[in-house]
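Incident log, structure service

09:12 report received: a user says their structure output differs between two submissions of the same chain.
09:20 pulled the input from the user's history:
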Amino acid sequence: MVLFKAVGRLPLGAVRCLGALLGRVMWLSKSREARITLANIQHCMPQLSEGEQQKLARHSVIEFGKTCFEIPLILQRPPEWVAKKVKQTHNQELLDRALADERGILLVTPHLGNWEVIGTVIGQQTHMTAMYEPARFAEFDAILKESRSRLGGDMVPTDKRGVMALIKKLRAGGTSCVLPDQEPDLASGEFAPFFGRRALTMTLLNKLLQRSGAQAIVHFILRVPGGFDVYYMEPDPAIYSEDQTEALAALNRSIEAAVNRAPQQYQWEYKRFKQCPEGKPSIY
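09:34 re-ran on a clean worker, output below:
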């Protein structure tokens, strides 16, 4: 925690330099993160040459290192400081139209760029409710709660009560955020194509849309020199389908479209294909 708090006092440029150094060490040492990243990229992007896969994997691990160091900074700085680091916002009119609508807004937020900045960006425009699972370390959990509460949002637990609370908020015209590319347990997911491969995909987002009538917006924040760029995108229209299989495929296509904006900033370090379809060997 001493290092965590010390990072919060550094300028953004210094934090990114330290993160890049961490990423290079992880890559050169063939760390767990480096091995998983390369396996995911080889699995999802077979059209790239071996050299291109290696290059993308190396860049991804370096960007992951930057994210690791940026998060303590973002969590400890005031929202006003974070807001000043936003350089450009793309498709702001998409969110503006949604906010003028009476329906709720469900932000589809993949692990791309720095997702901790999203609370600040959205918190300045509307009240947001998000699901929250306590962090493993109590002191870090307290920092997370304090940081997110500064933005005026609500946090609900990652259980049935939390899901019902989100549905209620969305039906009332509220805004919520779901990170849709986390692997669920088998009872809460279905295999759907992701970059041409079958990945266990959460059904939660589809259920929230079906039961609340909310509108979905893909939202992510990319790292750029000196700060961040904010993006809003229309999802694949089939994300609203009542056919769950079709809706999950559309969800993953929406994530792919976002990732293709900056594949080096996607969190390939996560075991997205940990669960395999029956009869298929693990890629890890």
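09:41 both user submissions now match this output. Likely a transient worker issue. Closing.
09:42 reviewer note: The radius of gyration is 19 Å. The chain has a mean pLDDT of 92.
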